[in-house]
């Protein structure tokens, strides 16, 4: 089968950073599905894992996690899907990735592909939707069954124009929250507004001052999707007493948790690979939430965050997508389709 892999961790400008290869087609066992991949999307985590480092692989490493495709074989323990089912998912970071024509994935982290979306539109969704859903409804504990109460609450989403932000804005609005998000350019402001943001502030300026201008002193929730270190003091300043902060971006310097003490505020991390990495008891929740996201997409409550499509799926185009993400200025999701 066709695949794109690496042996060395090189700058993306180097043609050997990602190369076209041929691998044996795998066979599913246990709870694994074998999926024929029709579309993938590239995420910042792909770029972080591939980033230059002094390390060499003995066998080709396959990156990539988001995918949309069709089940062609199932393991003997599978009960959720059968051959012919269209699916979408974000895979596991400790297993070979989706830069391959066929891919093995545990069915407990797979959802039914939205019926009304193309494979490309669907591939843009899983990793960011899982991250946003878990961040909002599990880590921040926002109650999706109490939308009337949520109308009285504010959430600040830092970095709203990226892949996770684009879906997080929509899910927060669906939950009834008043959504404030950050964006600094005309095109990113227009993008987040198109997904339902109520207010847009600039993450390069004081959060406190900008919130005061819209008559909001503090926020109930903060979802940080960009540079935890840079925004830590500002987040601590504007979070409400007993409020909650969730971040998906690892810190490079120690975080001063003492800033949250007098407010009894909560800080929590979200890493969407935790459940598949540690085989947690609630791993199947990712299957369930992807099915719900799929229904919301079909009902047009949510819309795809796809912003750019490249074709076909091969090393040169994946390198191009990585280079675009490395600029730090991408909006929405980059998808590749067709091997």
3D architecture notes:
The chain is α/β, with parallel strands linked by helices. The protein has 2 domains: 2-125 and 274-337, Alpha-Beta Complex (Quinone Oxidoreductase, Chain A, domain 1); 131-269, Rossmann fold, CATH 3.40.50. It is 29% helix and 27% strand. Strands 3, 5, 6, 7, 8, 15 and 16 form a 7-stranded mixed sheet that branches. Helix 6 (186-194) links the parallel strand 10 (178-182) and strand 11 (199-201). The protein starts with a strand and ends with a strand. The model has no long low-confidence stretch (mean pLDDT 97).
Descriptive tags:
alpha/beta; Quinone Oxidoreductase, Chain A, domain 1; six-stranded parallel β-sheet; ADH-like_N; oxidoreductase; single chain; 339 residues; zinc; seven-stranded mixed β-sheet; ADH_Zn_typ-1; Rossmann fold; 16 strands; metal-binding; 2 domains; globular
């Amino acid at each position: 089968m066709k695949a794109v892999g690496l042996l060395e961790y090189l700058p993306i400008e180097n043609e050997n950073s990602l190369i076209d290869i041929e691998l044996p087609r795998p066979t599913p066992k246990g709870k694994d599905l074998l999926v024929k991949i029709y579309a993938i999307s590239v995420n910042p985590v792909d770029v972080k894992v591939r980033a230059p480092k002094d390390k060499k692989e003995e066998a080709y490493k396959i990156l990539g996690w988001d995918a949309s495709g069709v089940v062609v074989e199932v393991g003997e323990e599978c009960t959720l899907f059968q051959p012919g089912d269209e699916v979408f998912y974000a895979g596991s970071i400790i297993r070979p990735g989706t830069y391959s024509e066929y891919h093995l994935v545990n069915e407990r982290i797979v959802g039914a592909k939205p019926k009304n979306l193309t494979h490309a539109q669907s591939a843009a969704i899983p990793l960011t939707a899982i991250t946003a859903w878990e961040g909002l409804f599990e880590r921040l504990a926002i109650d999706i069954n109490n939308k009337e109460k949520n109308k009285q609450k504010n959430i600040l989403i830092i970095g709203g124009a990226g892949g996770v932000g684009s879906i997080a804005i929509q899910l927060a609005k669906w939950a009834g929250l008043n959504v404030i998000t950050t964006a600094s350019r005309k095109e990113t402001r227009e993008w987040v507004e198109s997904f339902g943001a109520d207010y847009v502030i600039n993450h390069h300026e004081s959060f406190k001052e900008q919130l005061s201008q819209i008559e909001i002193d503090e926020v109930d929730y903060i979802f940080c999707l960009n540079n935890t270190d840079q925004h830590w003091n500002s987040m601590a300043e504007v979070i409400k007493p007993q409020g909650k902060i969730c971040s998906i971006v690892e810190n490079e310097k120690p975080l001063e948790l003492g800033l949250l003490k007098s407010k009894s505020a909560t800080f929590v991390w979200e890493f969407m690979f935790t459940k598949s990495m540690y085989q947690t008891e609630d791993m199947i929740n990712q299957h369930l939430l992807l099915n719900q996201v799929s229904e919301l997409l079909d009902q047009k409550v949510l819309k795809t965050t796809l912003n750019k499509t490249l074709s076909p799926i091969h090393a040169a185009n994946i390198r191009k997508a990585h280079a675009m993400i490395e600029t730090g200025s991408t909006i929405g999701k980059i998808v590749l389709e067709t091997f």
